[in-house]
Amino acid sequence: MNHIAGNAAATAYVQRVTDEDREKADKRRKRWAERDTARGGAQQAESFTTHDTPFGPYNERPGRGGAPWITTNMTQYPGTEKTDGRYVREEENQFIGLIPALDAEQFLPLVDALKGRQLSAEEIEGLSDDQCRAAAMLMGIANAEALREPGALKHIRSALRRQADSSHEAPEFLNDYPQGRVGGAQHENRVRSGRTRRATPEVETILEASSSSSSDEGGSRRRR
Q1: CB–CB of 178/184 below 8 Å?
Q2: Has residue 11 got a pLDDT over 50?
Q3: For the stretch 70-91, what's the b/e string if a residue is b when 16 or more beta carbons lie within 10 angstroms of its beta carbon?
Q4: Residue 61 β-bridge partners
Q5: Which residues contact 82 (CB under 8 A, 6 or more apart)?
Q6: Are 101 and 131 in contact (CB under 8 A)?
Q7: Fewer CB within a 10 Å sphere, N or C end of the chain?
Q8: What is the DSSP letter of 34?
Q9: Cβ atoms within 10 Å of 111's Cβ, excluding its own
Q10: Sheet of strand 56-61, all strands in order from the earlier edge strand to the far edge
């Protein structure tokens, strides 16, 4: 399964952010990348490796393009549905994938886990086996994104946090984090070279990202 994910139609969005907002977002995203690079960034496993998360394991193996491939299997999650590892896509008039698999209230614990916070049993016990598999894969994919593009982890955490908002739907994740779309791997390079501009949802997502390691608050609801 490829860690590069996404195949949902982008939601129409009014371009209401200012050029100043875009400039702020560009500078912030650049600082994240520089800071991550200075710290040495994430390190890719040199061979097939299994990583544990609060939700269960995921597998990492070296991939092409500077980022690993992330997988899970039926042995690790018996009785669960097979997943192709995409964030979200439309099939038979419904959205499926890792993002739709989770309920909105489950995204904040996921973001906290990505920050390294130890989750309580109560925060995990409400997840089904399929949801645990999706959450573990999202943790693996987020870390893989950080290998592909330094500084991406704060961006993806903010995009995941927005999924806890009661007004946010699963397909909007790909507007908040356009690198997650099919063919989105070079998005950041296109922005930095001036060939494209960040759209409103992405700008808002970057500017909403926490400026420290403290957790941000968000709403919650059950949604599909």
Answers
A1: yes
A2: no
A3: bbbeeebbeebeebebbbbbee
A4: 69
A5: 74
A6: yes
A7: C
A8: H
A9: 24
A10: 49-53, 56-61, 69-71
